[in-house]
Amino acid sequence: MPRTITVAAVQPALQVADVDNNLARLDELIRDAHRKHNPDVIIVPEAASSPNVHHPAMRTVARPERGAPYELLTGLARELGIVVGGGYLAERDGDAYGHYVLAEPDGTVNSHDKDIPTMWEQNFYVGGNDDGVVDSPTLGSVGLACGWEWARYGTAARLRGRVDVVLGGMCWPTTPQNWVGPFGWWGNREHLQQIELARPLPGQVARLVGAPAVHASHVGPVTMYLPGLPKVPYRTTMLGETQITERDGTILARLSERDGEGHIAATIELAAPQPLDEIQDRYWIPDMTASVRATWDVANLHGKVNYRLRKLVGTHISR
After folding, report:
1. pLDDT the model gives residue 232
2. What whole-number distance in Å separates Cα of residue 142 and Cα of residue 165?
């Protein structure tokens, strides 16, 4: 039978590789969202222990799968009596994964490993192979999606018609904001284009899958380095676009990049999925720019090779 629940989504501004302080900040934001909205579910983004960027310190970010990030999310679910979802780099069997946990108040924990690390993320973890569909005792059938899983028709196809709600989040750093001249002009132009790609995405996924979507995203400035050019700083910002949408794509609550850190809440209906849009025979849901497509191909290959070489000598994860 259809039923309504209140869901909240947190948009955090976190620091690269500062795992302990980031977890403390998440604790504050989740508790504040609970006090203000009294929701049944609170969702934080993927990579909530540290933004996923290209930086040597990222090799220190992975924690045991049931380490501190897991303890935070599951502990808050039990203490607050709600469902809590969030992601982090998790170490398991000698590899790191983009892991996302959905913790229930009764102690049940479901999880999903992001299938394809995005571009330079290939330097720091490997992809998983589960389909992202989990059975929640509180919510029913749930689709979990991380990062640019949200941006691919393949993800929508595997969740389509199978889930009552899509939960997860994004870590989308935009183009360099510190370059000048023609490169600065390109960066600003590309940044505006990427905002236009990110804004409709949660609603597009909701319509394709046929279920409401709760999409939490990172926000705020970060500094990383260009892959292959470790001395060239890449100062940028996270795009934001934390949203809660109905199954028809209607935005019920939203935080943009300009809104900064915070949280939102809305009431959604859980019911049998009803896809509204057709799956297209193409890879990306948004019409990705030429530079994004090229970076996807080159950075994926560079990062994958780098990770494997470092794993051979045992330096792919720093403890």
Report:
1. 79
2. 5
Report the largest interatomic distance among the alpha carbons of the chain, rounded to a whole angstrom: 58
Q: Which of 57, 77, 186 is nearest to 123 (CA)?
A: 57
How far lies 164's CA from each of 144, 167, 303, in Å? 11, 10, 35
Contact (CB, 8 A) for 267 and 286: no
Q: Return the bridge partners of 259, or none.
A: none
Task: State the pLDDT at residue 41.
Answer: 98
Beta bridge partners of 69: none
Place of tokens 């191909």: 297
Q: Is 158 helix (H, G, I), strand (E, B) or coil?
A: helix
What does the pLDDT look like over 6-56, one tens digit per residue? 999 999 999 999 999 999 999 999 999 999 999 999 999 999 999 999 999
User: Considering only CA atoms, which of 64, 54, 137, 74 is closest in space to residue 97?
Assistant: 64
Low-confidence stretches of the chain (pLDDT beneath 70): none
What DSSP designation does 209 have? H
pLDDT at 226: 81
Q: How far apart are CA 284 and CA 149, in angstroms?
A: 10
Task: Quote the DSSP letter at residue 200.
Answer: T
At residue 230, the pLDDT reads: 73
- The two beta strands, 242-245 and 140-146, are unpaired
pLDDT at 91: 98
Q: How far apart are CA 192 and CA 137, in angstroms?
A: 41
Q: Amino acid identity of 270? A: L
Give the separation between CA 252 and CA 16, rounded to whole angstroms: 30
Give the predicted TM-score (pTM) of the model: 0.95
pLDDT of residue 179: 72
* CB of 89 closer than 8 Å to CB of 123: no
Q: Please say whether the beta carbons of 128 and 115 come within 8 A.
A: yes
Strands (DSSP E) found in the chain: 3-11, 41-43, 63-64, 83-92, 95-103, 109-113, 133-136, 140-146, 165-170, 213-217, 219-226, 229-239, 242-245, 251-255, 262-270
